[in-house]
Structures are given as C-alpha cells and as structure tokens.
Amino acid sequence: MRLAGWRASRTARVSFWAAACFAFVMAVLPHPPEVPGHPSDKVQHIMAFATLAALGAAAYPRAIWVKLLVGLSLFGALIEVVQAIPALHRDSDVVDWLADTATAGLVLLVIRWWRLGG
Questions:
Q1: Residue 59 CB-density burial (10 A; 0-12 exposed, 13-18 middle, 19+ buried)
Q2: Is the distance from CB of 69 to CB of 50 less than 8 angstroms?
Q3: 30-40 tens-digit pLDDT
C-alpha cells in the first residue's frame, strides 16, 4: 500500500489509538516492565511521543497540526496527573510533560515540512 493510502486508512487510526492506549497503560502501571537497554525516563517519554506524533500525523493527515500537538500535549499532561496518584507509586514531573510536548511538536513540524516538499 502506498504511504498516502496508508495515512488515511483505518489501520493508521487503529495503530495510533493502540499506541496511545499502550503508552497510557505503561505510564500508569505501578511497576512497568523493564525496557531493553534501560533508557532513562526522559528517553522513554521522547520515544513514546515521537511515535504518537508520527502515527497521529499519519492517522489524521488532514488535521491541523496544531490541534494534533495540543491533543498530544494534553495527553502528556493527563499522564502526569494520573502519575501523581499516590497509590500508583509513580513520579509526576512537569519536565516529562514538557519533553512530551516538545518532542511531539518537533516531529509534527518535520512531518509538515516534509509534506510541503521540504
């Protein structure tokens, strides 16, 4: 399937929402599984939100990129709010949310630049 066809496909949307659900579950598990290579928490946030931004841009190619960025930023904020629940034994950090937002913004800008012909 051509890239343009995949971007607008149901598969792209399902992939995006599956990745978002996976990211949320991993972010709020009291004892998440170890990630191979033991990347730092910030690196894990960067990987997750780069993936979500790329999948979001593919799933919703006609969406205004700023709306995608705001949605992903709010999702990152939601994760940090939930991580602040004491029973989860997780650490909430505003810097994690900033990393999420900055990463999503950078990826979406690169994709927008690429779509406009670089």
A1: buried
A2: no
A3: 988 888 999 99
Amino acid at site 108: L
DSSP the chain: --HHHHHTSHHHHHHHHHHHHHHHHHHH-SSPPPPTT---HHHHHHHHHHHHHHHHHHH-TTS-HHHHHHHHHHHHHHHHHHHT-GGGT----HHHHHHHHHHHHHHHHHHHHHHTT-
Return the amino acid letter for 34. Answer: E
pTM for the model: 0.89
CA distances from 104 to 24, 36, 42, 90, 109 (A): 16, 23, 13, 23, 9
Q: Please identify which residue in the block is written with the tokens 């599984």.
A: 33
